[in-house]
Amino acid sequence: MSGQYAHRKSRAVGVLIWGLLLLAVAVGLLSVSGRSPAPNGIVVGFATFVATVTSVITLGSGVRQLLSWWREHRAPARAPTSADIDTAKDILAGLVSEQWREETVLRSLGDPEPMPLPWRSTERRELVDHPGIIAKGAVAFPGLPMHIKDMACGFRALPCRRLVILGGPGTGKTTLAVQLLLELLRTREPGERVPVLVSAARWDERVHPRLQDWLAAFLAMDYPALRAEALGPGIPEALAARGELLPVIDGLDELPDHARTDMLRALNRSLCENDELILTCRTEQFAESVDELGDVLTASAVIEPQPMDAVAAADYLEACLPPVPRPAWSQVLHALRTGAAPALAQVTSTSLGLWLVRVTYIATRADPAPLLEYGKGSAAELHDHLCDELIPALVSARPPADGPAQPFRPQHAWTPEQVDRWLTYLCRELSASEVDTRDLAWWHLARHISTWPVRWGSGIAVGAVVALVCAVLGGVPVVGAGLGVLSMLLIVLTTGSWFREAPGHADFHLRGMILGLVKALPAGILVGVLGAVIGWLTGRLRDPHAGMTAATQVGLLSGIGFIVVLSLVQWVERPATDASARSPLSTWQADRNLTAIRIAGGLAVGVIGAFVVWGTGLSFPAGLACGLVGLLIGLLVGRHHAWLAYNLTVPRLATRGSLPLRAMNFLDDAHRLGLLRTEGPYYQFRHVELQEHLARQLAEKKHRHREPVPLA
Fold first, then answer.
1. Residue 582 · residue 682 · CB < 8 Å
2. How far apart are CA 444 and CA 426, in angstroms?
3. Where in the numbering of this chain does the NACHT domain appear (predicted)?
4. How many CA atoms lie within 13 A of 356 on its CB side?
5. Where are the alpha helices (H) located in 137-210, listed in sequence order?
6. CB 164 within 8 A of CB 279
7. Which residues are paired to 458 by β-bridges?
8. Measured between alpha carbons, how far is 648 from 651 in angstroms, rounded to an integer?
9. What SS3 class is residue 246?
10. What is the pLDDT of residues 27-38, one digit of tens each?
11. SS3 sequence, 441-474?
12. Pairwise CA distance, residues 199 & 321, whole Å
């Protein structure tokens, strides 16, 4: 928590510095206004008024943040009670179950039945701990085809309840982990730990050296309902620290070599005697990490899949076919059962291969003759053929829904070529990432291109509007140009952090709003008094008789602006308290709503400011300018601007053809098509093999472009 407090302190100090700089600008404008001709003096005086009010509000915000940091730093935090923990566990179990049941439907994991892939304890003794520590001499996973209920019972029979699921590419490691998670949730007894699935790629061992710290950050990010005020403070941290979670860590193999070893070392260092764990990884990568570490994952059972025999694969495919299939299917199934199609038998020995055959030929009702042709050749060629046909098959088999949203059907029409091109672009950006090659975040799209053109373009646009208002409505083009340049620089400097910010949350329910605003009244009154004092001082510097007028204007608008804008933003930026897990689309919508309410608050202050300055005899253009300043304040305040950064970035990507203008609609539809999956607020390619296939295609295209053209 010390890092969090230090960050809050530095942020508060930064706000104070901005407030002092704005106050210095106001004083500078004040000295200019006294020497300016009448029209220019009015405009500069108005600019001084706006800068003064803004500086007072900013200073008040910085002081409040600093005092809040000091109180929380000095006061001991209230520890959650046992009732709080039990309630939080029940809420979390419901959220996880809801989230992964929906993903199970989208992935067709149980349709028509789970794939008959047997699992058994590994025979590679160098990968597993002493047998007596794991299962007290009993063989927990004998390698027979087991129902997921039996698998859950076998897991619960382990003394330490730690399991490593190994296997080659496409063998169904994640599928088994998800099915096991849901079964453990379905049969969960009171007091049992809550299983939560999280991608290994999201753990940065340098930021979170301990597993518990990472799990707490993960819960706070993906399940914000756990931070509801009704549950008490520190619930995610308490659940992780007290061992109330069963982490299901998926995809250890997706990390670089050294990172895998570091994670295994951190797990062994973090796990207490009774901590539980499920981990998935490719066999060879796990073996390499164990060899480099010189140790295994303590007290963990290790299982591997057994290749599905051709007869079982043929029976499964036959169960997926309609009662009266195409005649050619009988030839395919006969060749598979008798060994006449060895490549097909090798591909369908894994869950990925079975799924590819289902999607490309069964779901589309296509002629399966190519399966016989490729099935007698190379397994690699058949696999590439199925991956090539995957996107066209899914797009043709799942046309857009006409009415309400449906889980299996997209909501918009895309061509296979568009889907392939845009997914290939995302694959390229993930491959180039130095941090995470698996998790695709919509707010990270802004990190893939330079932000300077967008920031300068936005700054020039805002500066031009300010200059135009001053020149056309105020009749002072020189002063307007100066203010336009200042506005432009303000936008360029303040928007730099937008493209690195994570999405925020907004809660539009009225619950707690009145109480929150009432609590903000004393601080608003103090800010109003501070504004009155500064307004009186600056007013007397310009005109000895204008002190009280300036004090009234600055004090009134400062207090109102502080309460309406900053208190309202503080309210909506707190974590969402509705009982739902976060998804990519929900985080996008939440940050959009947050932006809307900030703009509404800024406009409200602008309108109030317009009436204040209008009532003192200033012109209508001055009132209009107040409204524009309020709008600008609403855009700039707050700590979450991911939606704004996204909307500034996507049009540039669309002009390049890298993504559509409706990028979030496309990502959501790619998820509905089954090409992407969700893991909390992130998208991932449903199968790493598809991502690798697209990456190979991209590399081959680049290689062909670089090849010299032979001379005639």
1. no
2. 11
3. 161-283
4. 26
5. 148-157, 173-186
6. yes
7. none
8. 7
9. strand
10. 776 665 555 554
11. CHHHHHHHCCCHHHHHHHHHHHHHHHHHHHHHHC
12. 34
φ/ψ of 200, rounded to 5, equals -60, -25
Lowest mean pLDDT among 40-44, 71-75, 423-427, 437-441: 40-44
pLDDT for residue 578:
42
Return the number of other C-beta atoms located less than 10 Å from residue 530's C-beta.
20
* 3-state secondary structure at position 276: coil
Q: What is the mean pLDDT of residues 153-178?
A: 88
Count of C-beta atoms within a 10 Å radius of residue 621: 17
Q: Are the C-beta atoms of residues 643 and 653 closer than 8 Å to each other?
A: no
Task: Tell me the C-alpha distance between 571 and 505, whole Å.
Answer: 10
Instruction: Extract the tokens encoding 531.
Output: 């504004």
Distance separating alpha carbons of residues 275 and 193, to the nearest angstrom: 9
Reading the block at residue 239, the tokens are 């659940």
Whether 84 contacts 235, CB under 8 Å = yes
Q: What residues contact residue 312 under an 8 Å CB cut-off, 6+ apart?
A: 116
Question: How far apart (Å, rounded) are the C-alpha atoms in residues 591 and 542?
Answer: 43
| Rounded distance between C-alpha atoms, residue 537 and residue 56, angstroms | 13
For residues 627 and 619, give the distance between their C-alpha atoms in angstroms, rounded to a whole number.
13
Cis, peptide link before residue 112, omega less than 30° from 0: yes
Q: Which are the contacts of 250, defined by CB distance < 8 A and separation ≥ 6?
A: 173, 174, 177, 197, 198, 199, 200, 280, 679
> 294 in the Ramachandran plot: left (φ > 0), alpha (ψ -120 to 50) or beta?
left
CA nearest to 155, candidates 302, 306, 264: 302
Alpha-carbon gap, residue 167 to 285, rounded angstroms:
10
H-helix or E-strand spanning residue 388: helix 379-397
Of the candidates 49, 41, 55, 58, the one whose C-alpha atom is nearest the C-alpha of residue 623 is: 49
**H or E element that contains 685:** strand 682-685
Cα–Cα separations (whole angstroms), residue 256 to 431, 434, 439, 621: 12, 10, 14, 60
- Residues 250 and 280 sit within 8 Å (Cβ to Cβ): yes
CA proximity to 357, closest of 317, 322, 315: 317
Residue with tokens 């730093």: 73
Q: What is the mean pLDDT of residues 534-551?
A: 65
Range list of β-strands (E), 299-396: 301-305
pTM of the full structure: 0.75
Alpha carbon distance 703, 712 (integer Å): 21
Residues near 180 by beta carbon (within 8 Å), at least 6 away in sequence:
148, 151, 152, 155, 195, 248, 278
188: left (phi over 0), alpha (psi -120 to 50) or beta: beta
Mutual angle of helices 513-542 and 2-33, in 10-degree steps: 30
Q: What is the pLDDT of residue 463?
A: 84
Say yes or no to pLDDT of 505 above 90. Answer: no
Q: Hey, which residues does 195 pair with through a beta bridge?
A: 246
CB atoms closer than 10 angstroms to residue 390: 23
CA–CA distance, 376 with 335 (Å, rounded to integer): 9
Contact call for residues 201 and 174 (beta carbons, < 8 A)? no
At 195 the three-state DSSP class reads: strand
- What is the average pLDDT score of the chain? 79
